[in-house]
C-alpha cells in the first residue's frame, strides 16, 4: 500500500482570477472587491446553491475555491469520513468580526445580526465546504502569521499516516479589508506531485 | 396591511440576502420556512431582529414565533397589531 501523498489538483484565487492546476479558469471583469468577484465567480459556475449568498465574504472565497477545485475531480470514490479539510490563514475572520463589532458598538442601536455573528470563526468556512460536499472527515483551521506550508503538510501527513483520512483538501484562505487570496489543493495517494513543503510552497508562489 | 406586506418583502430580501429574488416572487401567504422560502433557523433569528430593529416590536413569548413567522402576511398582521 502506498504510504506517500501527492497533490492531485490545486486552485488559486488571486487578483480577480481563478486558476486550476495553473490554468486560468475564470477572470472577473469586476475589480471592486471580494463580494462582487465571488458573486461573478459563483454565477460563472452556476452551482444553484442559494446558501452561498448567505455566507460571509471569506466563506464565499473558500467556497468558490473549493467549487473550482472539485469541479475538475470526483471525490465520490471516498467515503464521507475519509476526506479531511485542513486550512489556514493570517487574518482569521477579521473582516466579519469587524462587521459584527459594528452592529454592537452603539448602545443606542444594539442589533447584533445572528447571520453575521455565526461566521465569526474561520472554521465555519470549512463547515460550509463540508456541507456542500458531504464531507465528514477531520478538520482544522490554523491561524499563522504568513503562509506556512509546513503546518498544513505535516498535519495532513499525520492524519494520513494514522489512517484518519484518505483524501484531503488543504490550503490557505485569507481575507483582509483590502485583499483576498485562496490556495486550495487536493491530496490523495494517487501519484502526482509529491506532497511536501517545497512543492506546496512552489505551487502557492507559482502565479 | 398591503403597505406593510410590500415593505416586509423588501426588508426580508435585504436582511436575509435572498439574491435573485424580487418582492413579487414572494407570495404573502406562502410559508416562510420549510417548503416555502426555505428559510433556516438563523433566518428566524434575523426576522426577530428585523421586527425589533425596524418596527420596535419584541416577541415576548418565543412560543408565538411559529404563528407570527408562518408567512409574510402573518408577520404583517402581527406588526399591525403591535406597532405603537
Your description of this structure?
The complex is a heterodimer of chains A (207) and B (84). Chain A is built from seven helices and eight strands. In chain A, a hairpin with a 2-residue loop joins strand 2 and strand 3 (23-27). Chain A has a single domain (6-204), classed as 3-Layer(aba) Sandwich (Peroxisomal Thiolase, Chain A, domain 1). With 207 residues, chain A is of the alpha+beta class. Chain A is 35% helix and 24% strand. In chain A, 37% of the residues are buried. Chain A has helices at residues 34-45, 57-70, 94-104, 114-117, 123-133, 149-161, 197-204, and strands at 6-14, 17-20, 23-27, 83-89, 139-143, 167-175, 180-188, 193-194. Chain A is globular, with a radius of gyration of 17 Å. By secondary structure, chain B is an all-alpha fold. Chain B has one domain: ACP-like (Non-ribosomal Peptide Synthetase Peptidyl Carrier Protein, Chain A, Orthogonal Bundle), CATH 1.10.1200.10. Helix content of chain B is 52%, strand content 0%. Chain B is built from four helices and no strands. Chain B has helices at residues 2-15, 41-55, 65-68, 72-82. In chain B, helix 1 (2-15) packs across helix 4 (72-82). The mean pLDDT of chain B is 90. Chain A binds chain B through residues 39, 50, 53-54, 111-115, 118, and chain B through 16-20, 38, 42-43, 45-46, 49, 52-53.
Output the keywords.
heterodimer, A: 207 residues, alpha+beta, B: mainly alpha, Non-ribosomal Peptide Synthetase Peptidyl Carrier Protein, Chain A
CATH class of chain B: Mainly Alpha
Instruction: Fill in the CATH topology of chain A.
Output: Peroxisomal Thiolase, Chain A, domain 1
CATH topology of chain B: Non-ribosomal Peptide Synthetase Peptidyl Carrier Protein, Chain A
Q: Mean pLDDT of chain A, rounded to whole units?
A: 94
Intertermini distance of chain A: 34 Å
Could you name the CATH class of chain A?
Answer: Alpha Beta
Total helical elements of chain B: 4
Task: Tell me the name of the CATH homologous superfamily of chain A.
Answer: Thiolase/Chalcone synthase
Q: Give the largest interface pair and sizes.
A: A-B, 10 and 13 residues
Rounded to the nearest angstrom, the radius of gyration of chain A is 17 Å
Q: Could you estimate the helical fraction of the residues of chain B in percent? A: 40-55%
Helix content of chain A: 25-40%
Secondary-structure element sequence of chain B? HHHH
First-residue to last-residue Cα separation of chain B: 15 Å
Name given to the CATH architecture of chain A: 3-Layer(aba) Sandwich
CATH-scheme architecture of chain B: Orthogonal Bundle
Order of helices and strands of chain A: EEEHHEHHHEHEEEH
Amino acid at each position: 500500500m502506498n504510504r506517500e501523498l501527492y497533490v492531485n489538483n490545486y486552485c488559486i484565487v488571486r487578483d480577480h482570477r481563478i486558476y486550476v492546476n495553473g490554468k486560468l479558469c475564470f477572470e472577473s471583469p469586476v475589480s471592486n472587491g471580494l463580494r462582487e468577484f465571488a458573486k461573478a465567480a459563483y454565477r460563472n459556475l452556476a452551482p444553484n446553491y442559494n446558501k452561498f449568498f448567505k455566507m460571509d465574504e471569506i466563506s464565499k472565497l473558500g467556497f468558490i475555491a473549493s467549487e473550482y477545485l472539485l469541479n475538475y475531480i470526483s471525490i465520490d470514490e471516498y467515503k464521507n469520513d475519509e476526506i479531511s479539510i485542513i486550512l489556514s490563514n493570517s487574518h482569521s475572520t477579521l473582516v466579519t468580526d469587524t462587521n459584527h463589532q459594528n452592529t454592537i458598538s452603539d448602545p443606542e442601536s444594539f442589533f447584533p445580526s445572528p447571520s453575521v455573528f455565526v461566521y465569526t470563526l474561520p472554521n465555519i468556512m470549512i463547515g460550509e465546504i463540508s456541507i456542500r460536499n458531504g464531507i465528514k472527515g477531520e478538520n482544522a483551521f490554523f491561524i499563522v502569521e504568513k503562509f506556512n506550508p509546513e503546518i498544513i503538510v505535516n498535519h495532513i501527513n499525520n492524519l494520513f499516516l494514522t489512517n484518519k483520512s484518505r483524501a484531503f483538501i488543504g490550503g490557505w484562505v485569507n481575507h483582509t479589508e483590502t485583499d483576498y487570496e485562496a490556495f486550495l489543493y487536493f491530496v490523495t495517494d494517487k501519484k502526482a506531485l509529491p506532497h511536501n513543503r517545497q512543492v506546496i510552497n512552489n505551487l502557492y508562489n507559482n502565479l | 396591511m398591503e403597505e406593510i406586506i410590500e415593505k416586509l418583502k423588501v426588508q426580508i430580501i435585504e436582511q436575509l440576502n435572498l439574491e435573485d429574488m424580487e418582492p413579487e416572487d414572494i407570495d404573502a401567504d406562502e410559508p416562510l420556512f420549510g417548503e416555502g422560502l426555505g428559510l433556516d433557523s438563523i433566518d428566524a433569528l434575523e426576522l426577530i431582529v428585523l421586527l425589533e430593529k425596524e418596527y420596535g416590536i419584541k416577541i415576548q413569548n418565543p412560543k408565538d414565533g411559529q404563528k407570527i413567522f408562518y408567512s409574510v402576511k402573518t408577520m404583517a398582521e402581527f406588526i399591525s397589531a403591535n406597532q405603537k
